[in-house]
Write a structure and sequence with these properties.
Blueprint (H helix, E strand, L loop, with lengths): L2 E2 L6 H23 L3 H7 L4 H10 L7 E5 L5 H8 L3 E6 L2 H13 L5 E4 L13 E7 L8 H11 E10 L10 H10 L16 H10 L3 E6 L7 H9 L9 H18 L2 H9 L6 E5 L7
Parallel strand pairs: 1-4, 2-3, 2-5, 3-4, 5-6
Antiparallel strand pairs: 6-8, 7-8
Helix pairs in contact: 1-5, 3-4, 9-10
């Protein structure tokens, strides 16, 4: 059974859990069909293993203590645990927690599953984490700065926090209109029933600074530099809704151009600062703090 961190959830988190109950039931069939962890990670819908793989090259030493927040079905946490790390997977959905525990047992890959939200991580008994991930999950938090501050308090000095594949909005999009469209056209927006908050790239960096982190760094998604992978997901029906041939062709062009842009450090810095592309963010807990 998971350790329960949150005794009560916000209305939005509760709605998200209702939606995730159906998703967990659907995904359990995929878990049952996979005979190995490799098959489970490579054939499922999650992008987390592909996004985490280049990040973890920087932290190659095994045995790190990692907090993976918003772990969902658990692919990211299982990937990290399979590398030899001690992984704590936080997830508010009771059904997803049960799914993670089933996958952990089936593939003999130990995980510590925690049920709750990041705003309640101050209740967590464990401390001294070497690495913290938000698995495309900070934008689901009702109080993101509070959630980040909780992580800061749980981390070792010099430890890194990574916001992986967070939702971003482009600079010409008005937030009020974004949320109105989300309310009236949820399927078109890819909404699945829970908390969705929209942020520009510079807001993520600002939130990290407000929480006390330093040395903020922006870097591209691994999938952004791999247009064939992105296009293949669409062709296999794993990249979202069904697309027409014209839409697929248009996306192929966009993916190819994006790959060229993110491979240029100068161009990537310019477009990421303007929130023109989704990014990932890394920051550290300083060794010394000023009064």
């Amino acid at each position: 059974m998971p350790e329960v961190i949150s005794d009560a959830l916000s209305q939005g988190a509760q709605a998200e859990n209702v939606a995730n109950r159906r998703l967990a039931q659907e995904h359990r069939a995929h878990l049952d069909a996979c005979s190995s962890l490799q098959a489970y990670l490579s054939t499922g819908p999650s992008l987390a293993p592909k996004e985490y793989e280049p990040i973890m090259r920087r932290y190659a030493r095994s045995g790190r203590k990692i907090l993976d927040i918003g772990a969902g079905r658990g692919e990211s946490s299982l990937y990290l645990a399979n590398l030899g790390h001690q992984v704590f997977a936080l997830e508010p959905s009771e059904d997803f927690c049960a799914l993670m525990e089933s996958a952990s047992r089936k593939f003999n890959t130990p995980l510590t599953v925690l049920r709750g939200v990041a705003e309640d991580l101050d209740k967590l008994r464990d401390r001294d984490f070497d690495l913290v991930f938000y698995n495309s999950s900070l934008h689901h938090c009702d109080e993101p700065v509070k959630a980040l501050r909780n992580c800061y308090d749980l981390m070792k000095a010099g430890a890194a926090i990574i916001l992986s594949a967070e939702l971003h909005i482009r600079p010409w999009i008005n937030k009020r209109r974004w949320h109105m469209r989300l309310e009236h056209e949820p399927e078109a927006m890819g909404h699945y029933g829970g908390n969705e908050h929209a942020y520009y790239n510079w807001e993520y960096l600002s939130m990290l600074r407000q929480a006390g982190f330093a040395e903020e760094e922006t870097f591209p998604l691994a999938t952004a530099s791999d247009p064939q992978f992105r296009l293949g997901r669409i062709l296999r029906g794993r990249g979202g809704p069904d697309y027409t041939d014209a839409q697929i062709a248009a996306r192929a062009v966009v993916y190819a151009l994006t790959a060229k842009l993110v491979k240029s450090p100068l161009l990537f810095r310019m477009i990421s600062r303007c929130s023109l592309l989704p990014c990932q963010f890394r920051a550290t807990k300083p060794f010394h703090t000023t009064a």
